Amino acid sequence: MHRPRKWPTLSITSVVATIVAAGSLFLAACGGGPAAPASGASATGASGAPAAAKNVTLRLGYFPNMTHAQPQVGLVRGTFAEELGSNVKIETKTFNAGPSAIEALFAGAIDATYIGPNPAITGYVQSQGKDLRIIAGATSAGALLVVGGKSGIDKPADFANKKIATPQLGNTQDVALRAWLAKNGLKDKEHGGNVQVIPTANADALSLISRGQLDGAWVPEPWATRIVQEAGGKILLDERDLWPNGDFVTTHLIVRTKFMQENPEVVEKLLRAHVKTTQWINDNPDEAKKVVNESIKKISGAALPDAVINAAWRNQKITFDPIASSLRKSADDAFALGYLGDKKPDLANIYALDPLNKVLKELNLKPVSQ
Predict the structure, then answer these.
(1) From 3.40.50.720, 3.40.190.10, 3.30.70.100, 1.10.10.10, which CATH number describes the 12-141+247-362 domain?
(2) Which residue in 105, 87, 110 sits closest to 27, CA to CA?
(3) Domain locations in the chain as residue ranges
(4) What pLDDT, on a 0 to 100 scale, did the predictor assign at position 52?
(5) Is the preceding omega at residue 222 within 30 degrees of 0, hence cis?
(6) Torsions phi, psi of 348, nearest 5?
(7) What is the C-alpha to C-alpha distance for residues 32 and 55, in angstroms, rounded to an integer?
(8) Which residues of the chain fall below pLDDT 50?
């Protein structure tokens, strides 16, 4: 029988406590005269003159790490400003893990966010399928299981009685680790086993593995590479090896359902900026790495060494494809672990990909599916 995981009560207080504000990026003044109408929209007033576009604030969340490259590159290069237009003001907020971003979305503190699949699944289930939709992919891969050089771990059986970190309870890597343990005949202590899974901030996991106080971690990049290069760790498993063609969703873009319903043209413009930024990153990887690293430095106070970002970048793929099949597998794993209640969730409406496919068609790109 599945044991539902109890999640923290969502409140404005908890949201404020967990959100790290990255500041507000003012892309244009909100007041003033008439603005250009949204593409394809009819915008004339009663007199026949062009009507002013509605001023909108888009509050966008993301994490200051490599698997959230599009918002960092798109904001710095001005692609988001250009595509969204002068009537849209962007306010950005950064997070350290997905559950915190979901809390903010539920509280109305953000309208859209880049996030991992499992927090999105959990949020969708918690809101009974009402409050969020996945509108695009962002990153595939870029998550690895690394162990300390002195941990004595060389194979799955060696994980018995070990301490392994994940970024946060119920996040994407947390579910991946616990599912992998189960597949290899092991269980975490919460499910009657002898492997201690410890939700730990990525920076703390690096420090604890370096001191021998943790035996390993399942983490996103660049933390896996940092553990290898700075803490003497080794890669035990690249998660790409578990998926067909090595493709699985690590980050995608979600939006608050109400915001999408009230501002469909803004969502479409956001997606156009997202796709164009994805193309630019893939066409200019060396320059993209520099932009992302400068963004990380600005937000966290320290840039990544070139050796880290160069090695870590090779372990991920920037994409707008949501890789929906991998999300459904992640949902099955989360349900088996008891994170999603006693009834298997219906994810039939978790995706809203029509706006993305409209943008892809305009740009002569292949559509994506769910």
Answers:
(1) 3.40.190.10
(2) 87
(3) 12-141+247-362, 143-246
(4) 54
(5) yes
(6) -55, -30
(7) 10
(8) 1-51
